[in-house]
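Why do we care about 3D structure at all? Because function follows from shape, and shape follows, mostly, from sequence. That is the central idea of this module. The next example makes it concrete: a single protein chain, its amino acid sequence, and then its structure expressed as tokens.
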Amino acid sequence: MAGRRLLGVFVKPWRPGRAKSRLAGTVGPLAAALLYARMVRWLLVRWSRIGDERWLYCAPDLEKPWRPPDILDSWRCRYQVGNDLGERLQRAMLEAHCVADRVLIVGTDSPTLPDAWLERAWQWLAEVPVVIGPADDGGYYLIGCRRNVGDLWSGISWGGPDVLHQTLDRLERLRLCYRLLPDWYDIDHFEDLKRLANDLRNNFPEDRHARRLLVKVERLLERHA
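And the structure:
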């Protein structure tokens, strides 16, 4: 286990009405769900060789765990367990630390997140027990732990604008050192699609999965302009 790096990805249901609910208010539930499914697929393909272990944490109400057939052997499926996101993160970390000493858990709302930042987070976990990637909406797109950090996630207002601030306060109270990655953005609102399209064009021009995602994003932008 010494030195092993585990990447855990939290996946939500991609059913209409359950995926990207805020974006669905503009583009419709079906379009939002299809876009989210495409985002998930691309991330899993892109990260299928990153780290020593890769675990896909499916939401409790995701009836059938899903993995693209071309990377079937790259991801180990798990279910998220807990009443809220904090409990699910804590259980996931405890389970992952049984097989790896440096664990990153990432969401699926930031599909253009630079791969290099994952590597940087693992490097920093050799020096500090916690690394966080702040999201523009006040939450975070990534959290990494080197070991069991205790009850870090209770008392957090999940889904609100103060998630990052409350988590950093809790780290201070627990006297745990941490480092912050650069800010990044989630795909939550229609305006976020414009930034996503630019990122896909400029940073992933040769990636065929990125091109497929870009086609879907451009159609949504045209349809709802």
